[in-house]
Amino acid sequence: MVIAVISDTHFPRAGTELPPACAAECRAADLVVHAGDLADAQALAGFRALGPPLVAVCGNIDDEALRAVLPETAEVEVGGLRVGVVHDAGPEAGRGARLRRRFPGCGLVVFGHSHIPLHAAAPDGFQILNPGSPTDRRRQPRASMALVEVGGTGAARVRFIAVDEPPGALAGEFVRTRL
């Protein structure tokens, strides 16, 4: 199973469409996870129209109508892996422990807000993931998203994809840090 993970698309401020490479990865995935800051109901409808099931949470810039239909947190089971989703994971210091407490049954927690791609794993396998943003890279070198490949045992492999020019360029395996 493949999960396409995105966050902080900020539509329509950051455009009205995903970069083609990002849209293609989302359409090909088994599940799309969006960690907040879609902006409005039109953006949500666009993500739902991509095809695969969508798990999304609200972010700090989302309008009232979107906040009324999206939860602040979500959890989903994918191929034996329980995935938690939240927009703002708080300060860097203590983030891993804080997310583990907030999502005690999850092996992977996805978050956004900072627009900074991050993948960190604890020695026991618990992981946190921020995919960056495919549309609003801010001070990052590339616009990005993440793909999570989940095996039948719940084991997860994370890859980051650069989705800006050149299309589909591999962003490489980002440095994996310990929590």
Q: What descriptive keywords fit this protein?
A:
six-stranded mixed beta sheet; single chain; 4 helices; 179 residues; Purple Acid Phosphatase, chain A, domain 2; globular; 17% helix; alpha/beta
Structure, explained:
Strands 3-2-1-9-10-11 form a six-stranded mixed beta sheet, with helices on one face. It has a six-stranded mixed beta sheet with strand order 4-5-6-8-7-12, with helices on one face. The mean pLDDT is 89. The longest helix has 9 residues. 44% of the residues are buried. The chain contains four helices and twelve strands, in the order E-H-E-H-E-H-E-E-H-E-E-E-E-E-E-E. It has one domain: Purple Acid Phosphatase, chain A, domain 2 (4-Layer Sandwich). The protein has 179 residues and is of the alpha/beta class. The chain is globular and about 40 Å long. It starts with a strand and ends with a strand.
Low-pLDDT stretches: none
Fraction of residues in helix: 10-25%
The third-level CATH topology is Purple Acid Phosphatase, chain A, domain 2
Question: What overall geometry do the principal axes of the alpha carbons give?
Answer: globular
Strand residue content: 25-35%
Total DSSP E strands? 12
Radius of gyration over C-alpha positions, nearest whole angstrom: 15 Å
Count the helices. How many? 4
